[in-house]
Amino acid sequence: MSRLSKKTLQKRRRSESIHSGTVYQQKVAILEHLQQALTPENAQWIQPILNRVGRCKPAYRCNSKHCPTCSNAKQSKAVRKKTKQLKPLGKAQATTTSSKSKEYRVRGGQRMMDAFEGLPTAMLHCFTVNLCLVSFDDDLKETKERYLLKLRKVLNKLTDGAIARGKFDIVSKYADDLPSEFPDIDLPFGVFNAALPHTRHVMLHIHFLLFDPWMTRVELRNLFAKEFPGSNRVCARRTRDHTVLECGTMVGGAQGYLEYMCMEKVELSFGDQSADAALEFVQIDSTWDRRNRNFSFGKSISVSGIVIDQDRVKYLERENRLQWIKKNWSKLSYAEKFIHQWMSNGIDILAGIKSLPNYRAQFIDKFSAVLLLHCNWVRWNFFEVIDFVGFMSASDSELALLEPPD
Question: Taking the chain, what is the end-to-end CA distance rounded to the nearest angstrom?
Fold first, then answer.
């Protein structure tokens, strides 16, 4: 077997590991390919990565996105200590700490979390905005600065006291396999929506946690969608409860989302072309650094002095809960469905009383529905012997005969 064929087989093996291997296998395969592809022409952006990962030790973490240990939570096993203080209900406080952590994702998430300490979770929103498609020969630092101006243009329209912390990131994609639609102005030179080529490009995007004391998540998303038009380009999610996995990774919650931003992922799934895609990714990634990826807007509430309206917080918590119930209605038990149906119909009745006499014609039907629902729940047989109108017009002596069973 010739030497050339051996190299080809090794390259295919590395591509397979990068494409479908575990995180650890992916990182090892990328480092092997970088070592094999090292030449005087590309040493300027490959050699620093190899040197940095080579110095990584348990006592001194390199925190490189290409390190099999530092970029893999299952390998790093970041230790977290539970705080002894109780977490106030609905507050976005970090319930786990790791002040001496050597992991960049943990330290970065905690550092950004300081600005949101003590804020209501209902007012924190997790945003992802896909900014543009970039060719591999572009400069990410310059491109990021151009779209940073557009982001700040939207953020300046928010209410006083708004806070945002996040990270810019990149991911390799085929132009004709994008998850979002971009206007032609946000595509590389020579690439148009009418005929997207099957070639690899880099999608520049940003993840950030946003706080606004008065605007809802839908209103905030609409502002960003207006500045960044295109389907599936702006994603806004509510902050969920967090979970700490056995490996030390925090999933969900405000701090969990901030730590997710700091993971510096390298996602390359291009089959037998994954090894070549790794070289392209490393080359363009060398055009910026961590300082260029950081994103910050607004001051913490301790500095700005903004007062949180607690009535507003309760309203947002109720809306979030109702949205969750609507989305997961089929998963609820009969008892949970009954409670929400009974309360919703009762609220409609109370609201309708204010609009009498226009509401009078509907009052009997709505009240009958609520009473029927209640009777079905407690297994009363009122409606087998009398309807609602007859019940309301019956005398006391007649009602005595209709007492429900104990």
Answer: 90
